[in-house]
Write a structure and sequence with these properties.
This protein is α/β, with parallel strands linked by helices and about 425 residues long. The protein has helices spanning about 20-25, 60-65, 110-130, 145-160, 175-185, 210-225, 240-255, 270-280, 295-305, 320-330, 340-355, 380, and strands at about 30, 35, 100-105, 140, 165-170, 190, 200-205, 230-235, 260-265, 290, 335, 360, 365-370, 370-375, 410. The strands form five sheets. Strands 4-3-5-6-7-13 form a six-stranded parallel sheet, sandwiched between helices. A three-stranded parallel sheet has the order 9-8-10. A hairpin with a 2-residue loop joins β1 (about 30) and β2 (about 35). The protein is globular, with a radius of gyration of 21 Å. The relative contact order is 0.13.
Length: about 425
Amino acid sequence: MRAATARMQPRTRGGLCTALAALIAGVVLMLSGCASLEAGAAGDTSDYTQLRTGQPEDPNDGRVLDSLPASVRDTYAGFWHATRVGPNPYAEWTPPPSPWKFCYSSSYQGNSWRQEGVVVAKDIVDQLTGRGLATGGLLVTDANNSASLQATQITALVQKGCNVVFVMQPPTVGVCKAFDTARQAGVLVVVMQTGTDCTSAIQSDFGAYDAGRTSADWLIAKVGRTNGPIVMCDGIPGVAAAEARQRGASDAFEKAGLTVDHITGEWTTSTIKSQMLSYLSTHQGAVAGVWDGGVCAVPVTQAFQQVGRTVPPVTGFEGSCSWLASWKQTGHDSFGFAGGAGQGVNEAFRVALRMLSGQKPKYNTLLYPLAQITGANVDQFYRSGMSLNSACNAQPLNDESVPNSYYDALFTGGGEPAPFDAHLNALPVQ
């Protein structure tokens, strides 16, 4: 992977085009002049930063990052690896009166992580229906990893009268025209759990770069100065969500002066174990630690055990129940996040309901930090019945990744959003 030079120190406000006063007025610096992120022309893509996966920060990225509210700036670090940031494309949108029709477009529903997201979405819609705020239940489509089919399905959902379409992990490109059509028809599109090159939707996602960097920082503190390499277990090459978290970790390891090797597990446990076994067969020396880019922790641990090697510190990432079970069985300390699909759907609904109440997001992309799972709180996330075969994910405590007040810096105006109970901790252990 290419080296990056993203800045790691906390940022300070101001200094660019006398930007502090302009920021309060909703204006940020773009390129060599001053352009508005909060109130630009929604259809003008020049107002948005570029999606530059794997690239170092450029001056425009830095200016935009510096202009963000201080309370969210760390979470947006490295945003250009996964998404674009610019003005709210729904700045002129008038929310329809309730009851609302909610719809759900999934790029793929073939695993338990995806299925969890639909379960949570249906439950929230049922609650809103019971209070007269939603109608018709949740209409769900599955594109089976076809960008063209998902685009067609989104257009069909608009034609069926959906007021809000939640889109789970669409491809980075290939669906932008469908998003354009939906926005022009007055339909709110909220993209969940992935970056996008499209600028006609609202994005709700966690800060992937920041999460990758944070988990790497834990591993660095754990292993200290060592002669052995860190092995990074990477996800699917070219996927923005994978590349962003990997870049955050790589930057942290580079700053610490640690040697890094890579295996590519493609977020598939059988591939991860095979790749780790292959690596161990050709690297007989000590391994300082393994960084998990997604679902790596358990198969990596099993690979070390299978060949009789000492298991080094291994991070987790998305907080799978199988990882928590392995943690409890081995007694090896670890670090990860509560990053299941359910929490992602929960945060996306919080964003949509703010907008339906008349609140305006300041930007098109709304990123939040994930709840951390550490040795100090793992017992609050682990539940009896979790095993190495569990397909569930740990859920954030109190059913939310961030307190509701986190979003106050990202929205203006409007009324109180409709409340709901996420019920994340009621999800079954599978």
